[in-house]
Design goal:
Elements (H helix, E strand, L loop, with lengths): L9 H53 L5 H7 L25 H15 L19 E3 L15 E6 L4 E7 L7 E6 L4
Parallel strand pairs: 1-2
Antiparallel strand pairs: 2-3, 3-4
Length: 185
Amino acid sequence: MVGNSKGFTLIELLVVVAIIGVLAAVGVVAFNGFINNSKINTVKSNHKSVVKYIQTEFIKCDYGGEIDFHERWKRGEIQGDSYLEDVNCARLASINQSNKMRFLIDYIMGFLGNYDVMGFTNPFNPGYDKGTGVGGNSDCPDANNSTTIGETWCGYDQGTNKVHCCSRFGPEEDDIVQTYINDPF
């Protein structure tokens, strides 16, 4: 009789490797689903935050306050872009009532699209278009363009006379969140 052999048989090792392989495959699928859902939720959260930011800026101007990017420019937090000096709530007094919202949304979206000070990064494509995840356009990001998935676009919609904000979180036509902002002026 041979002494006690300590070790595993080849069959035992193959069973353990197979079990580890199955667990790893299930874990990878679950993890990828978790990551994708997290990105979708980030796009939806960014959309809500962008809409709230725009509404807040409109209200500040309507009640005699000052818009965020003009204040940041005055404090020196934003360099260059000297046109920001002239974009302020006081200037709205000289603009036709029906054009105030259109004027302001163009500059708000230009600010958000050029400076990622609010942290609205595109979770699906963080390096696209300066990585801000925000653009000025009243249409929805294109479902056929994978670089715009994760983007939030807002702009003046002449058909409704409202600001239309749209965020795309997937390639399907219905993978969007939309909000219309009424004219507060």
